[in-house]
Amino acid sequence: MLPAVYGRPSVLEVPIVRLDPDLPVPAYAHPGDAGADLYARTDVTLAPGGGRAIVPTGVAVAIPEGYAGFVQPRSGLALRHGVTCLNTPGLIDAGYRDELRVVLVNTDPATPYEVRRGDRIAQLVIQQVEEAKFTEGSLPPSSRGTGGFGHSGR
Q1: Fewer CB atoms inside 10 Å of the end CB: C or N, the chain?
Q2: Structural domains of the chain, ranges and CATH numbers in brackets
Q3: Could you tell me the pTM of the whole model?
Q4: Per-residue pLDDT tens for 67-87?
């Protein structure tokens, strides 16, 4: 186990290349946070009522095998401006090496949103993942059974 940092039991090293030296590397806002902020590399205008854009972050990462990155929305951006991420969570596989990009959408029906270079636009969460081996056959019973969408109530 690696030494504790910010009260965490271990720290995973993730190699990173800054494609824009003027932007910060992904950073945690507070000790113990799960998501590291990602920053916009370019200015973008998101039109009202569903305007969307792919926003580059200015960083590329090498997530270690056995882990994956998940791009999540920033709650304040969604709450205050109606701007969130599409394809959430955005999956970053361990083998991906290109620049991280975030698909943003403006859900506000009337007001455009201006993304400015250097704005925090999303969060990157790194999680350990298991590779599954799918085996064909019958399924064991469960308490849920075949209940799908809306099955558990309102």
Answers
A1: C
A2: 16-128 (2.70.40.10)
A3: 0.86
A4: 999 999 999 999 999 999 999
